[in-house]
Design a protein that fits this description.
Strand order of the largest sheet: 3-4-5-8-9-10-11-12
Bound molecules: NADP nicotinamide-adenine-dinucleotide phosphate
Order of helices and strands: EEEHEHHEEEHEHEHEHHEHHHEHH
Radius of gyration: 19 Å
Distance between the termini: 39 Å
Strand content: 5-15%
Shape: globular
Length: 303
């Protein structure tokens, strides 16, 4: 059975229950045809939502992905493309940047989206995220840029990433349409959005958040910290109870169990790991199993 789909907000974008992030695409060393095959594997599994940012791979990943789409243009309409803007990196590919900073000015947002469309070889992105909250964001100006881009059909939906609820509310107060997601770091190794109001806000607004680094960016498998060791052991125990599910599958099922309908954004470049993740979407953790893993993460049962 393929990965299911979900409307991330009422009457809004339909996304797959698991998304594929391509932050590491440039590291995967794939030839264009291998990239096409990898994208096709994701789509066949029902993983149709693809997460980009302008800056990924030092501003190269959107272009690498666009090259693959150019080989098989029919793939574009089978997926939802997310990209992001507002981080400016110091990079040989952007020699005009003198310090890493954020830019939510109208001029930068519009220029960044135009560039993303060119790189991705598409006429619209399904969802644009502001990548990081900008302390100098002028909410009126930023909202105007986003509303103009949406009006022009260049972006179909708007979301945010790494926003606190108050920052989300500020931007939302200036837009004439709803913000449809907040993409935040969340996993068994990173619990903050459970407690800082982020997921409460998403549930209140009935929007599905997205979880980046859903496997701790790989730390879950590599780290020798006491917490990572406890987690591996706990995930293995629960995996055995679920009929020999692997620890990555249980870690994803733990995210999927949350009632806010969190969408894990997978970071793997391996086809077999995509398959394993897709199977994880079928696992159902009990409440007790979920809390067992939470306790392994924090090192103590809940108070
Ligand atoms: P992740 O899934 O937590 O980590 C992926 C890493 O873990 C890869 O190096 C992968 O290596 C490794 N891995 C996966 N399964 C494994 C396994 N079973 N055993 C050993 N290693 C395993 O996700 P992420 O890459 O950190 O982030 C995912 C996506 O989130 C990114 O691509 C990006 O789209 C998004 N993101 C967003 C933000 C933001 O600010 N909005 C920030 C960071 C990331 P292999 O490739 O070898 O499998």
């Amino acid at each position: 059975m393929g990965v299911s789909q979900i409307a991330i907000a009422a009457n809004s974008l339909i996304c797959s229950r698991l998304a594929l992030g391509v932050w590491r695409l440039a590291e995967w060393q794939m030839q264009p045809r291998e990239r096409v095959a990898f994208i096709e594997t994701a789509l066949e599994l029902g993983i149709t939502t693809i997460d980009h940012a302008d800056i990924y791979g030092n501003y190269t990943c959107e272009g690498l992905f666009g090259d693959a789409l150019a080989l098989k243009p029919g793939l574009r309409d089978q997926m939802q493309l997310i990209t992001k803007c507002d981080i400016k990196l110091v990079s040989a590919n952007r020699p005009e940047h003198t310090i890493k900073h954020y830019d939510t000015s109208q001029a930068h947002i519009v220029a960044s989206v135009e560039n993303s469309l060119n790189q991705l070889r598409t006429d619209r992105v399904d969802l644009l995220l502001l990548h990081r909250p900008d302390p100098l964001m002028d909410a009126d100006e930023t909202a105007e840029a986003l509303m103009d881009l949406k009006q022009a059909g260049k972006i179909l939906h708007v979301g945010v990433s790494n926003f606190q609820p108050s920052q989300f509310d500020l931007l939302a107060s200036r837009l004439n349409f709803p913000i449809v997601t907040n993409q935040v770091e969340f996993s068994v190794t990173h619990l903050t959005p459970l407690y800082d109001g982020t997921f409460d806000q998403c549930q209140r607004l009935r929007i599905a958040p997205m979880a980046w680094s859903p496997l701790g960016g790989g730390d879950l498998f590599q780290s020798d910290s006491p917490s990572a060791k406890r987690l591996r052991s706990a995930l293995q125990t629960i995996g055995e109870q679920l009929g020999n599910a692997t620890i990555d599958q249980v870690a994803l099922a733990w995210i999927l169990r949350h009632p806010a309908n969190i969408i894990p954004v997978l970071g793997t470049g391996k086809r077999d790991r995509l398959q394993s993740a897709a199977a994880a979407a079928q696992l159902q953790l009990s409440r007790e199993q979920w809390f067992y893993i939470l306790a392994a993460s924090t090192g103590a049962p809940v108070p």
